[in-house]
Amino acid sequence: MSEATQQPNLVLVCVDQWRADALGVAGHPVVETPHLDVLARTGFLFSRAYSSCPSCIAARAALMTGLGQRRHGYVGYRDGVPWRYPTTLAGTLAAAGYHTQAVGKMHVYPERNLVGFHNVVLHDGYLHMARSRHADFGRIDDYVPWLRERLGAAYADHVDTGLGCNGYVVRPWVYDEMLHPMSWITTQSIDFLRRRDPLRPFFLKVSYHRPHPPIDPPATYLERYLHKDLPPLPVGDWVDHELPVCHGLDSPVPHDPAQIDLARRGYYAQLSFLDHQINRLTMALHEHEVLANTVFLFVADHGDLLYDHHHVAKALPYEGAARVPFILRLPSGNWGQPAHGGRVVDAVVELRDVLPTLCEAAGVAVPPGLDGRSVLGLCRGQTTGWREWLHGEHSSGERSNHWLTDGREKYAWFSQTGRELLFDLERDPRECHDLSAERPARLAQWRARLVAELDGRPEGYAADGQLVVGQPPRATLDHAGQGI
After folding, report:
1. Residues 316-344: tens digit of each pLDDT
2. Hey, which residues are catalytic here?
3. For a Cys-Cys bond, which of 123, 156, 202, 332 suits 99, CB 3.0-4.6 Å?
4. What is the three-state SS of the chain?
5. 59 in a domain, yes or no?
């Protein structure tokens, strides 16, 4: 533990594009995640955790500010908006005496914006806008200069596998496993434990760009999945579209069944590789004698549809994209023996709940006026007064959508077409059967709730007690990056 305080250390691991169901402890029939499974079994697994605006920047805005999308201002994906939020997770903890460090993906603007951290060691993956603006990649990335130094190659890069950053083509990593971005992020995080101020508690945010594409796991991890039997892909009775062709010329979405099969295996291989990185970090915490007094929280910014219902990636209301892993392990008395835990919590939680949760766990006053709430009461079995449902959304052209869920049902409305979907998540967790025609009363009830949620929005999605179809969607509201 920290030499001068009994306050717990805080480790927040945020991964990019990890589906909530893709954990061994969640019952996935193929994925191997033994180390995360142990964290869940000695902690708390939140089975109904969501990202209310499931894409990279919006999700991180919620995580870092404790605000919902209506107040942090990101309701879709947009680069280049300066972050000037007055209250952030890192800033709050730093002001309370924590030594704060972030390693890996930030996806803020400007790229070197510290958003309250004392220091950031940066690797955001491949960001088109940033890479086109800076010939010296070291200005926006710490990993690429490190990789070039290790290889002695002036032009070595993390895209040397030949894969784009949003595609579903698979190729194993072309360099040594310890040079992979995932390994580097872990190594840099472990090195912070050596360099930290021993007289202060620490907050370490470890943010992996994977399993987000490129799908480039080390070959040994891909090989372990090549001969497994995969479950069939879900295709709902409501599906009336085909797969997209690409996410840009550098990022194709293969339609060939063999390539689809390999994409799924490659994605699962990324998860297992990352699971082993988590164990590297956990072992280092133990060796530095801080694990017993460390709060460990594992979350993802959003999921990946991974060909479910003829979709890939995120931004849509379905479980594969919007539901995320959320595992909380509280301090323990000694190695492997948690003081509390081993429970599944079914209440609906969201990334906005991370800030107040870690503040309460640290004994730091939760900033006033947040939308999120600490989940520690749920861990103690206190569910009275918790949110009844969650409103999610994402602007995305013709696919722009809003959705509501209480963890048992889900209602989705597509703002540009007016289409509505209703799912029974308890009986149909893969959302294969649309109940909108069979349950008109429930549909109307959910619709009325959404009208109330959208009342007063500048896009004009609701008026006179009705949803308004066809209003132009916006990726950000006027206060994005500043909050209200």
Report:
1. 999 999 999 999 999 974 434 455 668 99
2. 56, 107
3. 202
4. CCCCCCCCEEEEEEEECCCCCCCHHHCCCCCCCHHHHHHHHCCEEEEEEECCCCCHHHHHHHHHHCCCHHHHCECECCCCCCCCCCCCHHHHHHHCCCEEEEEECCCCCCCCCCCCCCEEEECCCCCHHHHHHCCCHHHCCCHHHHHHHHHCCCCCCCCCCCCCCCCCCECCCCCCHHHCHHHHHHHHHHHHHHHCCCCCCEEEEEEEEEECCCECCCHHHHHCCCCCCCCCCCCCCCCCCCCCCECCCCCECCCCHHHHHHHHHHHHHHHHHHHHHHHHHHHHHHHCCCHHHEEEEEEECCCCCCCHHHCCCCCCCCHHHHECCEEEECCEEECCEECCCCEEEEEEEEHHHHHHHHHHHHCCCCCCCCCCCCCHHHHCCCCCCCCCCEEEEEEECECCEEEEECCCEEEEEECCCCCEEEEECCCCCCCCCCCCCCCHHHHHHHHHHHHHHHCCCCCCCEECCEECCCCCCCCECCCCCCCC
5. yes
